[in-house]
């Protein structure tokens, strides 16, 4: 039984504050890796998940990226931290939590891409002009911040 499940036995469905990390992987063509998630069903988002006891935010991001994509993320760079009243999540079972999400990006990664069918329906690189429509709202905000403030389109135009 994991940390979150143990907490839920004590507090039930009451809101918790849960910390997690997501990662944006950018390939040499400037495409971003997206994951079509099992929950929320069929929506597209970023690989990531909740922190385990004793983990750093960077370790969480790297572990989740590897578990969900089979890829090992290289050097991570901070995008931003997302939290507050707009990040209240209610799970299908009624559990509520306020998400604190630390978002990173990297242009270096290795391994062979493979998805975890328990968490993903598909994983695929997309150019920012071609993203699927059904995106996780909070992940869409993170991606928009990344594209507006960090992503350099001209860098990939010649590669």
From TrEMBL:
Keywords from the named record: Hydrolase
Keyword Oxidoreductase: no
Pfam families: NUDIX
GO MF entries: hydrolase activity
Chain segments annotated as transmembrane: none
Cofactor: Mg(2+)
CDD domains linked: NUDIX_Hydrolase
Nudix hydrolase domain residues: 15-149
Membership in a protein family: Belongs to the Nudix hydrolase family.
Name of this protein: DNA mismatch repair protein MutT
Organism: Bacillus infantis NRRL B-14911
């Amino acid at each position: 039984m994991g940390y979150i499940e143990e907490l839920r036995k004590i507090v039930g469905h009451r809101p918790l504050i849960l910390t997690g990390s997501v990662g944006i992987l950018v390939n040499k063509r400037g495409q971003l890796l997206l994951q079509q998630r099992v929950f929320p069903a069929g929506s597209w988002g970023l690989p990531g998940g909740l922190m385990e006891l004793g983990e750093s935010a960077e370790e969480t991001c790297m572990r989740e990226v590897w578990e969900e994509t089979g890829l090992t993320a290289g050097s991570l760079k901070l995008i931003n931290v997302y939290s507050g009243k707009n990040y209240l999540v209610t799970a299908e079972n009624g559990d509520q939590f306020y998400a604190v999400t630390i978002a990173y990006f990297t242009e270096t990664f290795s391994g062979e891409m493979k998805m975890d069918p328990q968490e993903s329906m598909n994983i695929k690189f997309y150019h920012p002009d071609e993203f699927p429509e059904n995106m996780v709202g909070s992940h869409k905000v993170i991606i928009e911040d990344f594209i507006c403030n960090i992503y350099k389109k001209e860098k990939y135009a010649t590669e």
